[in-house]
Amino acid sequence: MEGQKGSSSTGLGKKFELVFLWAIAILSVGIAFLDFSGALENLDWLKDRIPTFVFLSVGLLAGYLALERRNQLEPMRTEIRDGINLLAHKQEDTTQALIDSLQGVQVNKFESGDAFLNYLHGRITNARIRIDDVSWRPNFGTQNYGGSAQKLNKRFPNILREAVQRVPYREIMIFNKPGRREKLQSLLEENMAGYSCAYFDAGMEIPLLQFMVLDNEEVIIFGDLVTSSVSIRHPVVVKVFADYFEEAWQRAWKLKIGKTIYWDRVKEVLGDETAKMLAARVLAP
Questions:
Q1: Does 93 share its domain with 188?
Q2: d(CA 222, CA 90)
Q3: What is the spatial distance between Cα 32 and Cα 283, in angstroms, rounded to a whole number?
Q4: CA distance linking residue 281 with residue 48, whole number of Å
Q5: For 42-104, what is the HEC assignment?
Q6: 106-156, pLDDT tens digit by residue?
Q7: Structural domain range at position 8
C-alpha cells in the first residue's frame, strides 16, 4: 500500500509540474502576442509591468529547472552513496573473515618435556566429547624429555582411567615398541567400558606420525624431540587428522570395543598363555 501511495504521489507531482509549465508558457506567449499586436496600449497597469513579468517567468522557469535537476541528481547521489556503503561493508566483511581465519589457528610449541606432558595430561582430563589416539611409533618415548618428564609420564594410566569414565577413548596400536604389549595387557585386564583399541601388524620401519585428536577441536602431535611436539586448534587441520584416524580405525584389527574383548586377536598379540591367563582374570565371576 505504501508503494502504491508513493507512486500515486509521484504521478500527481508530475501532472502539477506539467500544468504549471503549460500555464507559464501560455501566459507568456499570450502576453507577448498582445504586446506585439498593440492590444496592451490601453492597459497601462499591465504594459508597464511586462519587464517584471518577464523576469518573473524566467525566475519561475529557472527555479523549476533547478528543482528538476536536483530531483534527478538525488537518486543518483543515493545510489552512489549506497554503493559506497555496500563496498565498504563488503571490504570490512572480507577483512574480518581474513582476520578470523588467521585468529582461528592456534599452535602451541612445547619447549620442555614437563610443559608438553602437563599440557597433554590437562587436555585429556578436560576432554568433553572423545579422544582418538594413535600409538605406533617404534621409537617414541620420554627419554628426550628428561627425568622429571618421565616421572610425569607415569601418571598417565591414572589420567586415562579417569578420562574413560567421562568420554570414549579409542586407541590404535602397532606393537613395535617395548612395553606396548604390557600396556595392552593391563588395559584388557581392567576392561574399562570407555576404552577401545585396535592394532595393525608391525611391518617395515616406516616413519609414523604419532598424534591424538581431542573433542574434534584439537590435535596434539607427538615427537621424540621437544621442538617437534605441537598442539594445533583449527577446524580444517583437525578434520584432516580426525578423518585420517577414522579411516585407520576402520581398517585396524579390533582388540577391544567397550567391554567386548576379541580374544582370538589378543592371542595373536600377547600369545596363548598370556591371553588365557588374562581371560581367566577378566571373565572370572
A1: no
A2: 41
A3: 122
A4: 129
A5: CCHHHHCCHHHHHHHHHHHHHHHHHHHHHHHHHHHHHHHHHHHHHHHHHHHHHHHHHHHHHHC
A6: 777 777 778 888 899 999 999 999 999 998 877 655 445 556 666 777 888
A7: 2-103
Between CA 194 and CA 202 the distance in angstroms is: 26
Same domain, 70 and 149: no
Do 245 and 270 share a domain, yes or no? yes
Q: Nine-digit cell at 118?
A: 602437563
Task: Enter the DSSP assignment of 140.
Answer: -
What is the tally of structural domains in the chain? 2
- Cα–Cα dist 27/44, whole Å: 18
Model confidence, pTM: 0.60
pLDDT in tens, 243-269: 999 999 999 999 999 999 999 999 999
Which H or E element spans position 197?
strand 195-200
Kindly tell me the number of DSSP H helices and DSSP E strands found in the chain.
Answer: 10, 9
Cβ atoms of residues 113 and 149 within 8 Å: yes
Residues 63, 138, single domain; the answer is no
Q: Which of 103, 128, 143 is the last residue of a domain?
A: 103
User: Whole-angstrom Cα distance, residue 69 to residue 48?
Assistant: 33
Cα-based angle 265, 271, 274 (whole degrees, multiple of 5)? 105
